[in-house]
């Protein structure tokens, strides 16, 4: 195991991966109704109000991969997003909360936008995450997918969000999945790798557990639910199964793996629900950007609106909190 300093200065052990262990997941059974029931109770048993709510929302910003992954992205849009990542809340909200400094966990963009993001974030300490490997479908030859990782790194990416070949999961070809992810991890070098499982394409929660385990065995630093482009993106039952797999892997190996729900999360309520999941299933260490990221292109606006209300007692029109 090698010690690794994350972008936020928290020391953690980086997952080196292990040889493929089929017996850790081959016979796994997932009780879907029980997972759904457990996920449903997460948000009903706790009522988070006032200062506590504000603190959870500020933490959500610290853990957010502020994202733009659209076909009409431009360098201008990316620069505006980076400005928002540096200063996610209006001055009066920062003052009202008594905060001096706050920034997002990362900015997440397409590979051709990495250069613009890296320049705009220079000196901020905010990492640039790039999607790669034929995002979102991953249906490209492996050598081109690996070359895309190298391109993004060359442009200045600090983190790489890879996509897996869903067919390997649907066909139960675990060794092909393992080999692919291990090759990607090697191409990432020192950059942390998040493995996007595209859970909405994987058909069963059992497949979600198995794909999570293979990704971690192959050396993923984070497992991530979705690209934001599948028909169904991040859900709490899927996330519960992934964090249980993560907990099992950590228990077996001692490595702490990060979790990134992504896709379709838009509200402050979502931000709190996923943090409750992390706290209840894994504990406080998984509420820091080193081990938890919320991948979202349009959640920050609602969080800012709720924090504005907390500080001023009034709801501002959503147009006042433009972008993200
Ligand atoms: O990785 C992040 C996701 O692509 C963001 O999805 P979203 O646009 O639905 O928030």
TrEMBL record:
Reaction(s) the record says it catalyses: 2-deoxy-D-ribose 5-phosphate = D-glyceraldehyde 3-phosphate + acetaldehyde
A Gene Ontology molecular function term of the record: deoxyribose-phosphate aldolase activity
Swiss-Prot/TrEMBL keywords: Lyase, Schiff base
Gene Ontology biological process terms in this record: carbohydrate catabolic process; deoxyribonucleotide catabolic process
Entry's Gene Ontology cellular component terms: cytoplasm
Listed EC numbers: 4.1.2.4
CDD domains named among the record's database cross-references: DeoC
SUPFAM superfamilies on file: Aldolase
UniProt enzyme class: lyase
This protein's pathway: Carbohydrate degradation; 2-deoxy-D-ribose 1-phosphate degradation; D-glyceraldehyde 3-phosphate and acetaldehyde from 2-deoxy-alpha-D-ribose 1-phosphate: step 2/2
NCBIfam families registered for this protein in UniProt: deoC
Recorded family membership: Belongs to the DeoC/FbaB aldolase family. DeoC type 2 subfamily.
Protein's UniProt name: Deoxyribose-phosphate aldolase
Source organism (scientific name): Albidovulum denitrificans
Lineage per the UniProt record: Bacteria, Pseudomonadati, Pseudomonadota, Alphaproteobacteria, Rhodobacterales
